[in-house]
Amino acid sequence: MRDLPANQLNPKIKNVWRINDAIWLTVVFICCFVPFAIAAAVEPAGWITITLIAIAVVYLACLIIWLIVLPPIRFVRWRYELSNDYLDIARGIIWRKRFIIPFIRVQNTDTRQGPILRAFGLSSVTVATAAGEHEIPGLDVETADQLRDKAAELARLAQEDV
């Protein structure tokens, strides 16, 4: 089996993942908790209180898992490498995925930066093929720009060779 790609993401990506996950977990928690809280305020019942406690316990457990346990593991498993012929991406904790993207298939490369990534000075590189998009998140802006430009140039050269 082929060795894992050599490059890792910027360590700041762990904080970006924590913030994104905290936002989504909180939105889901509020959507689940508020209807039962309203029901408990209108007509108190024992099962509603138990349900509210269960939702809160699940929320706290999910916060611990997604904000403390998963980010370091996810960071270690995320790797990428750019060679002259292909882009190699490896990721995943339980379901490990490995993408080898030949530059002959690349149609578009770009960088993306949302508000949370921007706050940490990070950016993502996206490589599009006919089969879909592959993203490398959490690179510092300069590295992301260099990776995007080099991938675009290698894709152009591969197209010219055909």
From TrEMBL:
Highest taxon, organism lineage: Bacteria
Record keywords, A-Z: Membrane, Transmembrane, Transmembrane helix
The keyword Membrane is annotated on this UniProt entry: yes
Transmembrane stretches, start-end: 21-41, 47-70
UniProt cross-references to InterPro entries, sorted A to Z: YdbS-like_PH
Residue ranges of domain YdbS-like PH in the record: 77-149
PANTHER family for this protein: UPF0699 TRANSMEMBRANE PROTEIN YDBS, UPF0699 TRANSMEMBRANE PROTEIN YDBT
Name of this protein: PH domain-containing protein
Source organism (scientific name): Gordonibacter faecis
